Automatic annotation (TrEMBL):
<dbReference type="InterPro" id="IPR008266">
    <property type="entry name" value="Tyr_kinase_AS"/>
</dbReference>
<feature type="binding site">
    <location>
        <position position="96"/>
    </location>
    <ligand>
        <name>ATP</name>
    </ligand>
</feature>
<keyword id="KW-0547">Nucleotide-binding</keyword>
<dbReference type="GO" id="GO:0005524">
    <property type="term" value="F:ATP binding"/>
</dbReference>
<dbReference type="Pfam" id="PF07714">
    <property type="entry name" value="PK_Tyr_Ser-Thr"/>
</dbReference>
<dbReference type="InterPro" id="IPR011009">
    <property type="entry name" value="Kinase-like_dom_sf"/>
</dbReference>
<protein>
    <recommendedName>
        <fullName>Protein kinase domain-containing protein</fullName>
    </recommendedName>
</protein>
<dbReference type="GO" id="GO:0004713">
    <property type="term" value="F:protein tyrosine kinase activity"/>
</dbReference>
<dbReference type="InterPro" id="IPR020635">
    <property type="entry name" value="Tyr_kinase_cat_dom"/>
</dbReference>
<dbReference type="InterPro" id="IPR050198">
    <property type="entry name" value="Non-receptor_tyrosine_kinases"/>
</dbReference>
<dbReference type="InterPro" id="IPR001245">
    <property type="entry name" value="Ser-Thr/Tyr_kinase_cat_dom"/>
</dbReference>
<dbReference type="InterPro" id="IPR000719">
    <property type="entry name" value="Prot_kinase_dom"/>
</dbReference>
<dbReference type="InterPro" id="IPR017441">
    <property type="entry name" value="Protein_kinase_ATP_BS"/>
</dbReference>
<feature type="domain" description="Protein kinase">
    <location>
        <begin position="69"/>
        <end position="198"/>
    </location>
</feature>
<keyword id="KW-0067">ATP-binding</keyword>
Length: 198
């Protein structure tokens, strides 16, 4: 793990090496006696269950605004605008919006969503579709919100994650990054505020 801090990029392990290392380590850890976990593995899973995967059909990429019922609740502020809770055909979703004066045009905003259209991985939030007319980007709703908020909440409640739980978070992030790397994408803004908890 020391190599992660190497100044030279060539000396650092790839995400694939990291996730395989974390896999082995998680196995060793799970064989060790555990103190009471503060949250269950299932609860902290960053991977969102595949339950809603039928919502995403690449053929129905363009969504009719009439099908989206916006909720007043703001889930968070993104780089380009607010993210709202909404419902699509009766299912809860998150809707990304773009604010006036954002550093990109509405067309670029919608086009950016294209990059995530065919990404399918258990540790990567699904983009369900776009509403170019509004413009909205409709994504799976993750009830845990951002990892940053999630960790801050635990901190306020004086709850410390066990090494196993921390490793599990790191493992899932490394798996997601490995998948992006395989598809020739670079995240460029990997931070706890951009990780969502399922
Ligand atoms: N799918 C989602 N489910 C729940 N909350 C979300 C979702 N997407 C975003 N959020 C909330 O909105 C915030 C900003 O979202 P983010 O994806 O970082 O937007 P941007 O890409 O514009 O920076 C997140 O930190 C999180 O609190
Ligand atoms: Mg962000």
């Amino acid at each position: 793990m020391q190599e992660c801090w190497s100044f030279e990029a060539v000396g650092r392990p790839s995400f694939a090496q990291l996730s395989s290392f974390l896999d082995d380590h998680s196995e060793e850890e799970s064989n060790a006696p555990r103190r009471n976990p503060v949250i269950s593995r299932q609860e902290m899973a960053l991977a969102y269950s595949m339950k809603q995967s039928h919502l995403q059909n690449p053929e129905n990429w363009e969504i009719d605004p009439i099908d989206i019922k916006m909720n007043e609740e703001v889930l968070g502020k993104g780089h380009f605008g607010e993210v709202y809770k909404a419902s699509l055909h009766g299912r809860i979703v998150a809707v990304k919006t773009i604010k006036p004066g954002a550093p990109m045009t509405e067309e670029q905003f919608i086009k950016e969503a294209e990059t995530t259209r065919f990404l399918s991985h258990e540790n990567i939030v699904r983009t369900i579709g776009v509403c170019s007319y509004k413009p909205y980007i409709v994504i799976e709703f993750l009830p845990g919100g951002s990892l940053k908020k999630y960790l801050n909440n635990l901190n306020v409640r004086n709850i410390t994650l066990s090494p196993t739980e921390n490793l599990e978070i790191a493992r899932q992030i490394a798996c997601a990054m490995t998948h992006l790397e395989k598809n020739n994408y670079i995240h460029r803004d990997l931070a706890a505020r951009n990780i969502l908890v399922g």
